[in-house]
Write a structure and sequence with these properties.
This protein is of the alpha+beta class and about 450 residues long. Helix content is about 40%, strand content about 20%. Belongs to the hexokinase family.
């Protein structure tokens, strides 16, 4: 959970001007000779986004948000701004027994949730995590949903719930056009999935059909939500000022409460509706081309979905490790690292995992972790190499945090302007493996300086 203020007149003061300019912190510079550092900076400088550049990014995103909300411009918008039909955040009176199914990556989770007292004072929860094999991610939709139905059935049996018909909250973290709270059409797969027969189909219907094929249990009403919406709602139980949800994990996305009168594809003038921005597609129309590096372009070209989810590929856990790997290969080939030598592992796409970035950036054990990882990758390293690798990791994760900060500032400013306020205080619910597992998980929060400065530079 992260608190943030959008203020038209005042913003958090920034004392470290080097950070405001986009320069790296000195955290990982020790141990790198100045001449080596000078050469390394030539590779890393394109990843250092200045405050002015972040302001430009924010202005571009603002235009895309408006385009995505438009009735006649939505179809050509890179940021889809999908209505969720969620019209309010929690008020603290909800209670009951529920099932939940959370699918958003290589694992999915089934849960049994019991809210047994009002005001959410007691929430009991049991859960099970199920893996999705790579071949199933690339197989047929029927295979995928049969697997989900099987895991859900096994979980219900373990909880002695097969005889009950409970309502199900279905978190499906892929771009969907939501028609109703229980009808959602998959626009396209992301995050390495490409199951056939699912794009253009109602995923709630596919899930129900898989359950009916089994015939040994049933579910009640289904509420379909995006993971960002689930994050916002969950945070809202504890803090009712939460009106933004953000995910920084395998992918990245955000949602927020928009005025219904601005959602041109939904009838009505009064009240608010949660909008699933699908901001991972920001830049798919070329609007971010000026900040893409040659390494970003390779990541895109070699991905399972080239040309789409440009913003996500610069930020999320599925791609950060690969960006670092490509940088290390280039620097080694240019004889700046590892005595000019590479290894079979380093040359293999996907072998430098994003979790390595987290391990290498550990404040106390980072250098030792870097050395172990480089050894495991079969590289002939020296202490300077380990320090450089740590700096590379910090630079890539810092760019991710700064871009998130710019996007977050854009959304919070939109909420403030929508309501005609000079000052907005709101809470952001944040989740995702990158946010939770990175040792500097508050790196985004520490970019509040960027959020505030970008908010100060605004167009009403």
């Amino acid at each position: 959970m992260s608190n943030m203020e959008a203020n038209s007149n005042n913003s958090i003061q920034i004392s470290k001007k080097r950070k405001m300019s986009g320069d790296t912190s000195t955290l990982h510079l020790d141990g790198i000779p100045l001449d080596t550092l000078s050469e390394v900076e030539k590779y890393l400088e394109p990843f250092r986004l200045s405050l002015e550049k972040l302001k430009e990014v924010s202005v571009r995103l603002k235009k895309d948000l408006i385009r995505g909300l438009g009735k006649h411009s939505h179809h050509r918008a890179a940021v889809k701004m999908l209505p969720t039909f969620v019209r309010a955040t929690p008020d603290g009176t909800e209670k009951g027994d529920y099932l939940a199914l959370d699918l958003g990556g290589t694992n999915f989770r089934v849960l049994y949730v019991r809210v047994v007292e009002e005001q959410q004072k007691v929430v009991k929860m049991d859960s099970k995590i199920c893996s999705i094999p790579q071949e199933m991610m690339l197989g047929t939709g029927e295979q995928l949903f049969d697997h989900i139905a099987q895991c859900l059935g096994e979980f219900l049996e373990s909880q002695d719930l097969k005889g009950q018909t409970l309502p199900l909250g279905f978190t499906f973290s892929f771009p969907c056009e939501q028609k109703e709270i229980d009808k959602s059409i998959l626009i396209r797969w992301t995050k390495g999935f490409s199951c056939s027969g699912v794009e253009g189909q109602d995923v709630v219907k596919l899930l129900k059909e898989a359950i009916h094929r089994r015939g040994d249990y049933d579910i009640g009403s289904v509420a379909m939500v995006n993971d960002t919406v689930g994050t916002m709602m969950s945070c809202g139980y504890r803090d009712q000022s939460c009106e933004i949800g953000m995910i920084i994990g395998t992918g990245t996305n955000a949602c927020y409460m928009e005025e219904i009168k601005n959602v041109k594809r939904v009838e009505g003038e009064d009240g608010r509706m949660c909008i699933n921005t699908e901001w991972g597609g920001f830049g798919d129309d070329g609007s971010l081309k000026d900040i893409l590096t040659e390494f970003d372009e390779v990541v895109d070209q070699t991905s399972i979905n080239p040309g789409v989810h440009t913003f996500e590929k610069m930020i999320s856990g599925m791609y950060l490790g690969e960006i670092v790997r490509l940088l290390l290969v280039k620097m080694a080939e240019d004889k700046l690292l590892f005595k000019g030598e590479t290894s079979e592992a380093l040359l293999t796409p996907g072998q430098f995992e994003t979790k390595y970035i987290s391990e290498i950036e550990e404040p106390d054990s980072g250098l030792e972790n870097a050395q172990k990882i480089l050894t495991a990758l079969g590289l002939n390293w020296d202490p300077v190499d380990a320090c450089v690798v740590r700096l590379v990791c910090d630079t890539i994760s810092s760019r991710s945090a700064r871009l998130c900060a710019a996007a977050l500032a854009t959304i919070s400013n939109r909420i403030r302007v929508n309501r005609g306020l000079d000052h907005l205080k709101t809470t952001v619910g944040v989740d995702g493996t990158v946010y939770r597992k990175h040792p500097n998980s508050d790196k985004l929060s520490r970019k509040r300086s960027y959020v505030s400065a970008i908010q100060k530079h605004r167009e009403v």
